[in-house]
Design goal:
Elements (H helix, E strand, L loop, with lengths): L52 E7 L3 E2 L4 E5 L6 E4 L9 E6 L9 E4 L12 E3 L5 E6 L6 E7 L7 E11 L18 E3 L5 E4 L3 E5 L22 E3 L2 E3 L84 E2 L20 E2 L45 E7 L6 E11 L2 E13 L1
Parallel strand pairs: 1-3, 2-4, 3-5, 4-6
Antiparallel strand pairs: 5-8, 6-7, 7-10, 8-9, 10-11, 10-12, 10-18, 13-14, 13-20, 14-15, 16-17, 18-20, 19-20
Length: about 425
């Protein structure tokens, strides 16, 4: 048997190198050796020893995947986008491996490149540590689908879509005696569906309670702050409690309103100067979640609490802000204002005749309205607590069919689904 030893075989001309002819058996390599197809090269007629041919040189920057190739991807230096092949054919296949275990820190995005993924028209995120995913193109109706999706302790291949939210915290409690009104609960929203969630993601929802109108257990004192409401990374701060205004001795200590989502109004007892107001938008977020309490009081009453839409004014609570995307659920929530049933986070009125702000703010001596985040009014001599908060999530119905638990109502408006949480629950995207 003859043996030819060369380092390279190249074509003399044309674009094809042919080994052997009809009826010839060609053996490449021997036992213990490996035969390698160059990274990125394509082949026909050989088949594969595995699902894909792996390119083991880790990718660290955006690239376009080729059919039949698996890629090691390293996102330790930042997020990476892998664009899937254009104009794929049924049976085309691509695989991805998190070679450094960093997809949970810096996600990898699979760009669909005009084809569907899992039947949807959104790019996909790989967000689990050490995730390995193989996808095939199944045809136009479903597009790219996962044939396996293995990772250690993580979730499956998930799509991303956008939602709109309204997160309103509990309103502050009014102050006792000649007390100020409680501030409206923090009000946070986006004007359209721009907040990203990932399908399959379980998102706890907290609906904040209204603040008590005095210290727990009763007795004269400042109102308590409302509790925070939370959806995902969005937290709204409870409204500030109204300040205490003593009713008898001019030497008694009065107190200012407390800081919060919106600030509480201060106490203003007879013969004493106004004790001051609480700051709003505390802690600070952008855009601001609320306003301060009233900077002055209307004699002989105390100051009003701030609302999400305006600061308190004299002894009147500030108006809240409208949320116009409740659809058919709007009449069930809020306090009539310029847009009936759609205002939230109104401030409570101060002693003795302060009015509550539109959006559930209680008048002097009255509680804030439940599920509005309205502050309660200052005591004359009785006062209820601040109104509890609310969380609203609105999404395109066709994007996903999420499940929910907890106190909620569901409605539809055009192509959107609206989910209103009046108590703690869970949104599974």
């Amino acid at each position: 048997m003859s043996k030819i030893k060369v380092n390279e075989i190249d074509k003399r001309n044309g674009s094809t190198v042919t080994l052997g002819g009809p009826g010839t058996n060609i053996v490449l390599g021997t036992s213990g050796q490996s035969v390698t197809l160059g990274c990125g090269a394509t082949q026909t007629g050989f088949g594969r020893t595995g699902t894909v041919n792996w390119c083991t040189t880790a990718k660290t920057s955006p690239f376009t995947a080729a059919n039949g190739v698996g890629y090691f991807v390293n996102t330790s230096g930042g997020v990476v986008t892998v664009t899937l092949p254009s104009s794929p054919s049924a049976g085309d296949i691509v695989a991805i491996n998190d070679v450094n275990g960093t997809f949970d820190t810096n996600a990898l995005t699979l760009g669909r490149n005009s084809s569907k993924i899992n039947g949807g028209c959104e790019d996909l995120l790989l967000t689990s540590e050490r995730q390995s995913t193989t996808i095939i193109y199944s045809g136009a109706p479903q597009g790219w689908v996962a044939v396996n999706d293995a990772n250690v302790g993580g979730n499956s291949l998930n799509s991303q879509y956008n939602v709109q939210y309204l997160v309103v915290a509990g309103g502050g409690g009014g102050g006792e005696s000649y007390g100020g009104g409680g501030g409206g609960g923090g009000y946070r929203t986006v004007a359209s569906k721009t907040f990203a969630v990932t399908s399959g993601q379980s998102i706890p929802i907290t609906v904040g309670a209204g603040g008590a109108h005095a210290h727990p257990g009763g007795g004269a004192g400042s109102g308590c702050n409302g509790s925070n409401s939370v959806f995902s990374t969005i937290a709204s701060a409870g409204g500030g409690g109204g300040g205490f205004g003593p009713s008898s001795s001019p030497t008694a200590t009065d107190t200012p309103g407390k800081d919060g989502g919106s600030g509480g109004g201060g106490g203003a007892p007879p013969g004493m100067s106004y004790s001051g107001f609480g700051a709003g938008n505390t802690p600070p977020v952008s855009p601001p979640q609320g306003n301060p309490g009233a900077p002055t009081a209307t004699a002989p009453g105390a100051g009003g609490g701030g609302g999400a839409g305006a600061a308190g004014s004299g002894s009147n609570g500030g108006n809240g802000s409208p949320f116009t995307d409740l659809g058919p659920l709007a009449p069930s929530y809020g306090t009539p204002g310029p847009a009936p049933g759609r205002y939230f986070s109104g401030g409570g009125g101060g002693y003795a005749s302060g009015t509550g702000g539109a959006g559930g703010g209680g008048a002097a001596g009255a509680a804030g309205t439940a599920n509005t985040g309205g502050g309660s009014g200052g005591r004359i001599p009785t006062s209820g607590d601040g109104g509890s908060g609310i969380v609203v999530i609105r999404h395109v119905t066709a994007d996903a069919s999420p499940s929910v638990s907890g106190g909620n109502a569901t409605g539809t408006c055009g192509s959107d689904t609206i989910r209103v949480f009046t108590g703690d629950g869970t949104f599974i995207a």
